[in-house]
Design brief:
binds NADP nicotinamide-adenine-dinucleotide phosphate, alpha/beta, Rossmann fold, 6-stranded parallel sheet, 3-stranded parallel sheet, 11 strands
């Protein structure tokens, strides 16, 4: 079997075109979705991510602005800015680009953002709503993964999903979303003994490890759906995932590439959340 390669780039593009139409309709009702991104310091990777988010907003008709602050900004100064944004009716979504400088407690910042503007979906209220199955902002990468799987008409219900990784931003929430879709979920992590005994039982295998090519064909059940979240830069500068794509595509039924797999879906789900914030939580997607 040679796997079907799921193009996150194409699926994201199609979703963004549909969102642009929705934004147009909102504008006719005098609602202009607006995202404010706050970034501290000069980290080139963070600035590149923010540039990508701003460009995607512009392409979709979403208004956005970026507040750039020095990395010496105090936690209190950042909290004051978030407070102002929370009270600004023209701002629908607030995103503070992570990671933050070490002198700032990220959790304090995440919890300061109003849950009604939490387009990253990291606030404990958003996480709690996700776990209890309420309408909420879903975290962007996990949500994008579910959309990718659904785009292929793959039935998640009743399947055994194995998630490798348990971070708060990817592993834990993607497992929860798969559970919400009625999968039976197993989590693996760095302390898991004999990883292969779990991965070989996966109908859906999610790799969110952050180590280049650690998932080989020997880890994968023939016919499995394999979603590669990892983004790893090799010494020669190329990007690669956690999954050995060339090996695994020979036995999987579906596989996502890196790049152009999960990555483009993450920003697309941020756009979706910003539109949702502009409409108001609880008023549907
Ligand atoms: P993370 O916080 O470093 O978490 C990595 C997880 O992998 C941890 O739970 C860790 O276990 C586990 N792990 C590490 N080595 C392992 C091993 N040998 N076997 C089994 N589990 C192992 O990373 P993250 O933020 O979740 O991100 C994961 C990857 O996804 C990274 O490459 C990141 O760049 C990428 N990513 C991509 C997107 C996108 O939009 N495409 C978005 C976010 C992240 P412990 O918990 O025991 O340490």
């Amino acid at each position: 079997m040679v796997a079907h390669v799921i193009s996150g780039k194409d699926i994201a593009q199609k979703m963004r075109e549909e969102m642009a139409q929705e934004v147009e309709q909102l504008k006719q009702r005098h609602i202009v979705p607006h995202l404010t991104v706050v970034i501290l310091g000069e980290d080139p990777a963070s600035h590149s991510y923010v540039k990508g988010k701003k460009k995607a907003c512009t392409q979709t008709g979403i208004s956005s602005d970026v507040i750039e602050l020095p990395d010496t900004t105090s936690e209190q100064a950042l909290l004051d800015i978030i407070d102002q944004l929370n009270h600004d009716d023209a701002v629908h979504g607030i995103l503070v680009q992570l990671p933050l400088p070490k002198h700032i407690d990220e959790q304090h910042i995440i919890e300061a953002i109003s849950p009604e503007k939490d387009v990253d979906g990291f606030h404990p209220v958003s996480v709690g709503r996700m776990i209890t199955g309420q309408d909420t902002f879903l975290p962007c990468t996990p949500h994008g993964i579910i959309e990718l799987i659904k785009s292929q008409q793959i039935d998640i219900k009743g399947k055994h999903a194995v998630v490798i990784g348990r971070s708060n931003i990817v592993g834990k929430p993607v497992g929860q979303l798969l559970l919400n879709e009625h999968a039976t979920v197993t989590y693996c992590h760095s302390k898991t003994e004999n990883l292969q005994q779990y991965t070989l039982k996966a109908d859906i295998l999610i790799a969110a490890v952050g180590k280049a090519n650690v998932i080989k064909a020997e880890h994968v059940k023939p016919g499995a759906v394999v979603i590669d979240v990892g983004v790893n830069r090799l010494d020669d500068g190329t990007l690669t995932g956690d999954v050995d794509f060339d090996e695994v595509k020979e036995i999987a039924s579906y596989i996502t590439p890196v790049p152009k797999g999960v990555g483009p879906m993450t920003i697309t789900m941020l756009l979706k959340n910003t539109i949702k914030a502009a409409k108001g939580l609880g008023k549907g997607d």
